[in-house]
Amino acid sequence: xxxxxxxxxxxxxxxxxxxxxxxxxxxxxxxxxxxxxxxxxxxxxxxxxxxxxxxxxxxxxxxxxxxxxxxxxxxxxxxxxxxxxxxxxxxxxxxxxxxxxxxxxxxxxxxxxxxxxxxxxxxxxxxxxxxxxxxxxxxx
Length: 140
Prior knowledge:
Layout: H1 5-23, E1 34-44, E2 47-51, E3 57-61, E4 64-65, H2 72-85, E5 89-94, E6 112-120, E7 123-126, H3 127-133, E8 138-139
């Protein structure tokens, strides 16, 4: 079975970024399976298109659920998240696929499941936790 290029790229970037991340202040330690990426588009408040290197991937934030963008609360959440991260540099942590023992975890729609860390005045902050704290999303 061939390992998809995105997995190889993501893991290579994650390994090379580990030393840099450990020197970056944050609210909690950023895991070593983390890589730098650019958010290209906010689809809704908990789903984004990101560019890890030359590819585009869709990421779904783990552990939270934001309202759908067609609702007033969803439009507000999407706008706030867009202001925080769209076109910005973030760090993304992906989880290994435990079922297949290879690659990264994806949801039923094929989106990468992960966590996003964005630059905050206090250092790198977990976007999902921030969204729950700000009442833009709920834990699931």
